[in-house]
Amino acid sequence: MSDAAEAVERAIASRRAVRAFLPDPVEPKLVRRILAVAAQAPSGTNMQPWKVRVIGPDSRARLEAALLAALDSPDLPAAEEYRYYPESFREPYLSRRRKVGWDLYGLLGVKKGDVAGMRRQTAANLRFFDAPVALMVTIDRDLEIGSWLDLGMFVQNILIAAQGHGLNSCPQAIFARFHPVVRRELAIPENEVVVCGIAIGKVDPDAPANALVPEREPVEAFTTWLA
């Protein structure tokens, strides 16, 4: 295997969702480089449908304060910006979802019915897990599924490019649930969908949540080989 292939595989295989970061700053120049590399993602007819907001300290302080206030507010709309998960889960997806949830909350010492513990973890999520870099990703509302596929490849490129530079990351769908707050605080127009946030920084190796390594299915479980 060539050095280049090994580096790519290592970046992909070592990537995982980090849920606690060290405060070490990341240079804006490096963030810009990561985004430039990520923008090499393929897109149908070169549409490049992705939009990113790099959230600076002042905007982030306002956003996080508003999000944490909304967390306890009965006025937060129940509807998400878009449907990420199915209305009801079936196998094998239900078991996979339950296991990763139980594994994470087990590491955090949050037992079933521990409302305060679950709220604490949700609040950490809304703070971008205290990562030094916070991004918000959007897409134009009138675009179709193909452009969402393109956007997914762009987001993956961000995560892998960050990993290649010795940084860790966490893609965060939770912000779609709080889209009215995100939209207001970041001045996102109605014609854009709040898709996800991305936290980037250096992993806190001592944080219990970062011991989570979700299982992956073997190739045989999802691949059909045709003659």
UniProtKB/TrEMBL annotation:
Gene3D superfamilies, sorted: NADH Oxidase (3.40.109.10)
Family annotation (InterPro entries): Nitroreductase, Nitroreductase-like
UniProt xrefs under SUPFAM superfamilies: FMN-dependent nitroreductase-like
CDD domains in the record: PnbA_NfnB-like
One of the record's GO molecular function terms: oxidoreductase activity
Keywords: Flavoprotein, FMN, Oxidoreductase
Domain Nitroreductase: 12-202
Superkingdom in the source lineage: Bacteria
Co-factor(s): FMN
Keyword field contains Membrane: no
PANTHER family noted in UniProt: NAD(P)H NITROREDUCTASE YDGI-RELATED, NITROREDUCTASE
Family under the similarity heading: Belongs to the nitroreductase family.
Name of the protein this chain belongs to: Nitroreductase
Native organism: Bosea psychrotolerans
Lineage, opening ranks: Bacteria, Pseudomonadati, Pseudomonadota, Alphaproteobacteria, Hyphomicrobiales
